[in-house]
């Protein structure tokens, strides 16, 4: 219950994190099946759980996103509405995230873990837009972006990589 008091609020920039945290809170409260549609109404227990989920989702939205869900009657409708808004696979959003992937580079002060974490955020955005990347492409991006300090590693990797 304490974790729900500090829910991250959805804004224009943090949908992937918001969705991850909402799903974790709902799973911890044994309510994820309500929002996914696995458990359906009109059971009395379902109504109580649905009200809990609606409250959790509602409190986690900023005013802009809250306006979209006000007409929703169930938590499933609310979640579907937010997912539909944030995961629309438009051509422009696909181009934007693809450009973000290709422009992503190693920045001074980064370590391997922070570089890969940042790249994973972009890859997750791509996957939410149904852009699938092979592991080889992601590994290639990492190898390509490593700074010169990693030249010997890069060379070893290229020599040991299987020829296709």
From TrEMBL:
Pfam families: Retrotran_gag_2. This is Uncharacterized protein. The lineage of its organism: Eukaryota, Metazoa, Ecdysozoa, Nematoda, Enoplea.
């Amino acid at each position: 219950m304490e974790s729900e008091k500090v829910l991250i609020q959805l804004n224009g920039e943090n949908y992937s994190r918001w969705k991850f945290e909402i799903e974790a809170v709902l799973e911890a409260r044994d309510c994820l099946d309500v929002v996914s549609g696995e458990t359906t109404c009109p059971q009395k227990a379902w109504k109580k759980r649905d009200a809990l989920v609606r409250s959790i989702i509602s409190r986690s939205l900023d005013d802009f996103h809250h306006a979209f869900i006000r007409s929703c009657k169930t938590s499933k409708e609310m979640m579907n509405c937010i997912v539909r808004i944030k995961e629309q696979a438009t051509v422009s959003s696909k181009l934007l995230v693809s450009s973000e992937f290709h422009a992503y580079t190693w920045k001074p002060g980064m370590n391997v873990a922070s570089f890969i974490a940042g790249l994973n955020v972009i890859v997750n955005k791509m996957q939410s837009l149904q852009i699938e990347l092979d592991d080889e492409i992601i590994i290639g991006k990492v190898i390509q972006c490593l700074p010169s300090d990693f030249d010997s590693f890069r060379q070893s990797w290229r020599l040991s990589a299987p020829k296709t």
